């Protein structure tokens, strides 16, 4: 509601910020706009495979608002109605171009929300979420409004139950963006008015619900013990579906995975990544054999262009094995470097996000006229537990990089930094490095003999095969040392194969040959 001067005034539900208030129909009718954050919890970002640098938003219709105890229809002919338990902020005082430090002070109340979405129609929204997120009853709120000045925004707990079972449980300590930042960011572009609602994102655990399911979302203040109580929503089957004069429901496997949260939950067979297949046992097998043996096994499968070539290893014969992360540089252009080269750019983001067992592979087009890595970023990668760094460009501070414990494969040294030849452009996309293609999740094996890229789907069977091949090569080499002729032994004929299998059955002891 507004006064004679056009300024929004508090509703009855907002009039007493010192105590909890119910989310009733009068409150819901007073809401001015509903804004929602796409990704804001670290667990959800990791599940989605991308961590945003800044928050992004969409809007929901106020007609989607509903109180606790209401029902939500799953339209006829659809199947992917998903819940998202969230903390909702209710603006208490007008906010326009406020600072992140001041943002929280403009929040009047906190409550529980369920950001329901219908993935069957999401494709037609082209990112707007208009129909997929704004169905009637798709934004339940409540049941109680907690006064913002009585809770700690950094110690709120969000829990979601489906049919009594806890499926989401997180605290605001894992938020990527604090509430004050979200309020401030939105206030740069629009005026936030008393009664506006901001849904602040969901943690991992969101999934699909079906008719008959009951979803309960609850927000608690850990310090004070205040609670919104459970926000209950029952899913019912709707009789009406989508008419032929609009976009019909449509589902892909990718939609199913997004709706259920994981490929396993969606019943979709996903392509394996290096993280899935590079077990301790497989890692040990690949480390036990020569790089040349692995190369031969790949060639037998028709993979003749999986070697990263022309690079020098700082750690010589020390073998590395890990899962590929990728970083791409594009040729330097002054305007692009100004926009994307400075500050916390793609290069720093990539090296700041490495995890143990990962290998950062850089595409630098073989350019030796400017460095792609220096001692500080190499040390940061080492501290984070990265397995290695591979670049088909140059490095600077080469002596310091060589002294570090992190293996680096490079294309020479150069004292200049990015701005001379490169713009750091993108992270975790398919790249070209040293003459071959590398995708995020590929398995990389390398030493001074060469660097190989192994498709994840082949890793397990390849590991078994190369161990056997290495054993055969050891058998042959030992007999060559003893003076046996190559003919018939390399490759082994029928007689030598019989001797080899007898040796294996006896324990494969080289000392016994």
UniProtKB/TrEMBL annotation:
Gene3D superfamilies: Fumarylacetoacetase-like, C-terminal domain (3.90.850.10), Ribonuclease E inhibitor RraA/RraA-like (3.50.30.40). Pfam families: FAA_hydrolase, RraA-like. This is TRAM domain-containing protein. The keyword Metal-binding applies. Residues 1-17 have a biased composition (Polar residues). It comes from the Bacteria. Residues 160-233 form the TRAM domain. Keywords: Metal-binding. Residues 1-23 are annotated as: Disordered. NCBIfam families: PRK08245.1, PRK12764.1.
């Amino acid at each position: 509601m507004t006064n004679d001067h056009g300024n929004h005034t508090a509703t009855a539900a907002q009039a007493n910020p010192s105590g909890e208030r119910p989310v009733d129909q009068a409150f819901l009718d007073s809401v001015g706009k509903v804004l929602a954050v796409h990704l804001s919890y670290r667990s959800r970002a990791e599940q989605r495979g991308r961590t945003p640098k800044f928050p992004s938003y969409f809007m929901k219709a106020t007609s989607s608002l509903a109180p606790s105890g209401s029902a939500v229809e799953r339209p006829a002919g659809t199947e992917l109605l998903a819940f998202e338990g969230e903390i909702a902020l209710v603006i208490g005082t007008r906010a326009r171009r406020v600072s992140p430090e001041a943002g929280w002070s403009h929040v009047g109340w906190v409550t529980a929300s369920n950001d329901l979405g219908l993935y069957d129609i999401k494709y037609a929204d082209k990112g707007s979420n208009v129909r997929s997120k704004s169905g009637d009853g798709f934004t339940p709120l409540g049941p109680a409004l907690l006064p913002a000045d009585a809770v700690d925004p950094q110690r709120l707990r969000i829990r979601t139950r489906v049919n009594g079972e806890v499926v989401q449980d997180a605290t605001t300590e894992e938020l990527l963006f604090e509430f004050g930042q979200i309020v401030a960011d939105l206030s740069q572009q629009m005026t936030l008015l008393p009664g506006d609602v901001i849904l602040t994102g969901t943690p991992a655990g969101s999934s699909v619900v079906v008719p008959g399911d009951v979803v309960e979302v609850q927000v608690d203040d850990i310090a004070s013990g205040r609670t919104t109580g459970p926000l209950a929503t029952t899913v019912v089957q709707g009789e009406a579906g989508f008419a032929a004069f609009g976009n019909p429901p449509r589902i892909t496997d990718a939609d199913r995975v997004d709706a259920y949260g994981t490929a396993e939950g969606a019943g979709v067979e996903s392509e394996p990544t290096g993280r899935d297949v590079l077990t301790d046992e497989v890692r040990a097998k690949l480390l036990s054999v020569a790089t040349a043996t692995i190369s031969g096994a790949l060639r037998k499968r028709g993979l003749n262009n999986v070697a990263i070539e022309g690079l020098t290893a700082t750690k010589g014969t020390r073998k590395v094995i890990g899962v590929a992360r990728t970083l791409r540089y594009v040729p330097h252009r002054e305007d692009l470097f100004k926009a994307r080269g400075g500050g916390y750019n793609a290069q720093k983001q990539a090296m700041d996000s490495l995890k143990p067992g990962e290998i950062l592979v850089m595409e630098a087009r073989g350019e030796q006229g400017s460095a792609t890595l220096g001692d500080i970023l190499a040390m940061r990668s080492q501290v984070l537990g990265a397995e290695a760094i591979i670049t088909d460009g140059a490095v600077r501070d080469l002596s310091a990089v060589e002294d570090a414990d992190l293996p680096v494969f490079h294309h020479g040294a150069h004292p200049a930094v990015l701005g001379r030849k490169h713009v750091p452009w993108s992270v975790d996309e398919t790249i070209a490095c040293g003459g071959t293609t590398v995708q995020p999740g590929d398995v990389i094996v390398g030493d001074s003999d060469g660097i190989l890229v192994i498709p994840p789907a082949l890793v397990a069977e390849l590991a078994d095969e190369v161990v056997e091949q290495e054993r055969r090569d050891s058998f042959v080499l030992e007999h060559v040392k003893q003076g046996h002729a190559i003919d018939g032994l390399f490759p082994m004929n029928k007689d030598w194969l019989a001797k080899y299998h007898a040796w294996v059955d006896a324990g494969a002891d080289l000392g016994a040959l």
